[in-house]
Amino acid sequence: MLLNVSDLQTHFFTDDGVVKAADYVDLTVEKGEVLGLVGESGCGKSTVALSILRLIPKPGKIVGGRIEFLSQDLLDLSQRAMRKIRGNEISMVFQDPTASLNPVLSVGDQIGEAIRIHQNVKKRKEINARAVEILQKVGISDPRDRLANYPHELSGGMQQRVMIAIALSCQPKLLLADEPTSSLDVTIEAQILNLLRELQQDLELSMIMITHDLGVIAEISDRVTVMYAGQRVESATVTQLFENPLHPYTQALLEAIPTTEHAVTTIETIPGKVPSLVNPGKRCLFSPRCEIATEVCKSTLPESKRVEEDHIVACHHQGGPDRSGGCHEE
Fold first, then answer.
1. DSSP code of residue 64
2. How many CB atoms lie within 10 A of CB 221?
3. Beta strands in 30-70 (DSSP E)
């Protein structure tokens, strides 16, 4: 196993109270696997990714759990040791390239910086050669000429390809892709997803794809972890999740996807809103928005249970209501 996150707790200590942005989150990534991390905005997806890299900004802090990468707990490492992990072993692609790329540095300088620092390559000629090679891999035409371009001279799709090139320049084992297509139109989005999948297969990368779009999940992921209000509520293979979703939140997400099978006059929505993560209480956090919630849901936190191989769900009513107030076992 490449990555094993267990009981991760990342909290933000604010004036209003402690925000439990990630609360006892578990996830695993095998070598060569793509894990989809899906959920509404604010559910804790990006917090989990930043926790893996130990880049949580203040007033946030990882207060518990383990993040084992190649059997080594990253939370035990010094900051100096973590700097050797970032980029070399684990890289991240952020969702907005215009905010992530430095506008006053050329493409060549920004890719070269990663190669120089993490690969300890000093000669400019060798750095440029590696930068050209990685730009070719991400499908940028005339890569040698592009080294001199600045971000504002590139389209959104090209900027995102540069971000991917920077992330892959040091040949990491794990790539964290934080909604890398959210700012792109659907045509460019398809190109970037195809590129990521091809690179993942060619380079035998492991990847965590973070998104709120289940269409993206279906396109690229092998397994899926569904998050809600800082907690993992369901984990399954892509086939299991789409054919047999068990958590009411997962079911609601799938029902909200527009289809082309028949005319759509209204789009399904999930009623209510995500609860405050300040002192959320020991209950199912989805219960105020859930149509099948019973008293046990409003008073008891559901445990994660394995209902079949590779399929885990945290719900008192797995796949349907048990109006007696107990847990429905399959």
1. E
2. 24
3. 34-38, 60-69
Q: How far apart are CA 200 and CA 220, in angstroms?
A: 10
Helix-then-strand count for the chain, H and E: 12, 12
Q: Running along the chain, 330 residues long, what does each successive block of 10 average in pLDDT? A: 97 94 96 95 94 96 97 96 92 87 95 88 92 92 94 92 91 93 81 89 93 90 96 96 95 84 71 87 91 92 92 85 39
Compute the distance between CA of residue 48 and CA of residue 300 in angstroms, rounded to an integer: 24
Kindly report the number of other CB atoms within 10 A of residue 17's CB atom. Answer: 13
Q: Burial code of 23-42, b = ≥16 C-beta within 10 A, e = fewer?
A: bbbbbbbeeebbbbbbbeee
pLDDT at 265: 66
Q: Name every residue whose Cβ is closer than 8 Å to that of residue 125 and which is 6 or more positions away in sequence.
A: none
Question: What one-letter code names the amino acid at 303?
Answer: E
User: Using CA atoms, how far apart are residues 69 and 88, in angstroms rounded to an integer?
Assistant: 13
Q: Which amino acid is at 175?
A: L
**pLDDT tens digits along 247-260:** 999 999 998 887 76
The DSSP bridge partners found for residue 226 are: 38, 234
Q: What SS3 class is residue 201?
A: helix
Using a cut of 0.85, tell me whether the model's pTM lies above it: yes
Residues 140/146, Cβ–Cβ less than 8 Å? yes
